Amino acid sequence: MLLRTRLVLFGIGAAVLLILLWPLLHAAPDGLEHGELTQFVGRFHPLVVHLPIAFLLLVPLLECAGSVRRWSRVRESAEFVLTLAAITAFVAVFLGWLLAWSGGYEGKLVTIHMWSGFSLAVAVLLCFVLRAWDKRVYGAALLATLVLLTWTSDKGGKLTHGETFMTRHMPSKLRTLLLVRVIPNNVQPINAASLNAASLISTSVTATPAPSATFFAARVAPIFENKCSNCHNTEKRKGKLRLDSFENVMRGGKDGIVVKPGDPKHSELFRRINLSPDEKDFMPTDGKPPLTASEVKVIELWIASGASSSLPAIEVHGAPPVLVSDLPVLPLTRDYRPQLPLITSLEHELGVRLVPRSRNPEDGLILRTVSAPERCDDAAIARLKVIGMLIVDAELARTKVTDAGLKTLATFSNLRAVDLAHTAVTSAGVPVLARLSRLESLNLTATVVDDAGVAALRHKQTLKRLYLFETKCTARSELESRDERR
């Protein structure tokens, strides 16, 4: 009787899933946007999708714990949790398909993730039925479902964070065993060979492109790569637009040609990057960092000069100077890749993450501690000193770093951004950060720093952003520090 009931529920669940998805199954993602309401509802997918994941991971724990006589009653909860996993899986799949169908997405990776999510929902339903039929078959099905969950989650992570999201920090031995080749990002190089980066390094605050470098390769392509290609590449073509090569840029997207050579004002791409961030057509979308004023100017000059892929950079006049901080911040002979074994070892030892800033291995690393801020203290910073010159951003909010750690941090010569919000640093230790010649952003929110502590930083020429919210700095001091950076 119980098995019959489960089969009925399985049939009803499968039917509901197909009914919900039927309109979308006949209208696969086409790279076009369809309706404001559907986009609004679909964007709940990233929130809801974590529910079936959590429930499904809890089921085997309950089943295993229930096999112990002392906790045998725990197993009774597994059925209820599995039911919740099945229900929320339906909802997550529906919202995911709705988001992909209406949000202007398309591409092989998008399609694979959608169908794998659909298959996962069906697999969870099947586990629900098998649990009352045969425990051994149910166990094998549950294991297979967890494998499918891992694979589906990997595809989702790649869609959001890039092709190497799950493999970038894989231990080297495991990487070798699984024949995984790690590259810093999920997009293909954009005429990188024509960019002689060594010629861009200068001892002054600006640099000049090599005479052989084209303006597109030296100035425009890096902007597309850093700000646009995550949503407009071969695997994820939002709006049917790809910006990962010159040919694809000029081909345009669902709205037709996005670049009109010689006419930036009537070029759709230029129009969108100039919109207000709260407008629907603004690019980049989804809260990603907008282009800076200098980057917008570079795009404008490129289009105005004919949107060529071969025009030498030295023939384009009026372009904003290339700041040293906009270039690879490390000497070209200090590539982080030879240090990967050491970097991996430090990550495991200290519980921090050392993430490549971009696909260019000479752009340095981002120190991230958000997953376990309590593990990062002065001693951890001291251990990182051996690779300090490779770190360009240090995200240290809510860590145990104190003034003693700042002394070490001040030796990280390539640091550009430091987040010390909600830490125990004081006005006695902060001034040492003025030694960082490339420091552009410093966050001291919710610390005990006062006016005296930031006095040495207020007139630092490289510092563009200084955050003093919830500190002991006076309102006037905080306002002045921000005004000086406008």
- Tally of extended strands? 8
Helix content: 40-55%
General form: globular
Low-confidence stretches: 182-208, 324-333, 476-486
Instruction: Quote the average pLDDT.
Output: 77
Derived structural class: mainly alpha
Strand content: 5-15%
Ends apart, CA distance between termini: 73 Å
List the strand order in the largest sheet: 3-4-5-6-7-8
H-E string:
HHHHHHHHEHHHHEHEEHEHEEHEH
Report on the structure:
This protein has 486 residues and is mainly alpha-helical. Helix content is 44%, strand content 5%. The strands form 2 sheets. A 6-stranded mixed beta sheet has the order 3-4-5-6-7-8. A two-stranded antiparallel sheet has the order 1-2. Helix 1 runs antiparallel to helix 6 and helix 5 (75-102) packs antiparallel against helix 6 (108-130). The longest helix is centred in the first third of the chain and has 28 residues, at 75-102. It is globular, with a radius of gyration of 26 Å. Mean pLDDT is 77; it is low at 182-208, 324-333 and 476-486.
Notable traits:
single chain, 486 residues, mainly alpha, 6-stranded mixed β-sheet, two-stranded antiparallel sheet, 17 helices, 44% helix, 5% strand
Protein topology:
Elements: H1 2-25, H2 36-42, H3 45-48, H4 50-66, H5 75-102, H6 108-130, H7 135-161, H8 172-177, E1 206-207, H9 215-227, H10 246-251, H11 268-273, H12 293-304, E2 322-323, H13 340-350, E3 353-356, E4 365-368, H14 378-383, E5 391-395, H15 403-409, E6 417-419, E7 441-443, H16 451-458, E8 465-467, H17 475-483
Parallel strand pairs: 4-5, 5-6, 6-7, 7-8
Antiparallel strand pairs: 1-2, 3-4
Helix pairs in contact: 1-5, 1-6, 2-5, 4-5, 5-6, 6-7, 9-12
